[in-house]
Amino acid sequence: MRFIVKLLAHWFSLIAEPRVIRLVQFGIYLCMVGAGAFVLATPPHSFNGVLGPQLVMVFGIFVLVGAVFGAIAVLPGIWWLERAGILSLSTGLAIYAIVAFTLGTSLVGTLVCIAFGLTFVQRWSEIRRFQLAPKRG
Question: In this structure, are residues 63 and 89 in contact, taking their beta carbons and an 8 Å threshold?
Answer without folding.
Answer: yes
